[in-house]
Amino acid sequence: MNNKNFLWKFFFHQEKRKKYFIKLIKKINIDISNNKIIYPKKEYIFNIFKKINFNNLKVVIIGQDPYYGFNQANGLAFSVMPNINIPPTLKNIYKALKLDIPNFTIPNHGYLINWVKEGVMLLNSILTVEKEKPQSHANIGWEIFTNNVIRIINSHYKNIVFLLWGTYAKKKVHLITSRHLILTTSHPSPLSFYKGFSTCRHFSKTNEYLLLKRKKPINWNINKI
Q1: Which H or E run contains 206?
Q2: CA-based, 20 to 30 A from 221: which of 32, 78, 90, 166?
Q3: CA 60, 85, 51 angle in degrees (round to 5)?
């Protein structure tokens, strides 16, 4: 089946009926009703699934959980809203890109929608977080959901590039088979940037693989705002 939209529509229909998912959404709604500040905003929680073209999916970058500062998270892993300061981790991603892709220009913002339009799924394993409390929504059900997302991609697509950065993302390796390319390295955070990420060349390696599989390479450049 070339058109993947029905596949994903069916996937969401099935997941929403499962006990873990109903319990998960209920917990988030209760937190919000108890005046806890949850990021990203409710309308952005599933943003990556609204923005990605499922028929043009080429690359999956797996993050951990959303940024937990004011108005940073927008439902796209590693990305922030256009008017928000670029976080250190994303600055390091840009640095590695500059070393790897000769014509890459470091943008003046951290909104990664251009990558999504190119076919890059920026998928956090955990889709929500409480303000100023990293990992606060770990183990409430999101990992079940996003692991199932990875399984669907693994089963129904071929020649996808999975970029697994850091120890947490590398734990997803068992969900991905050899019909895809898996590239692993250290996390781009300041603590581990120089432990492999800075010189990993994942961006050019991704494009080399896509060209090999007769797919259009990713334009990693991001429009200025």
Answers
A1: helix 202-212
A2: 166
A3: 35
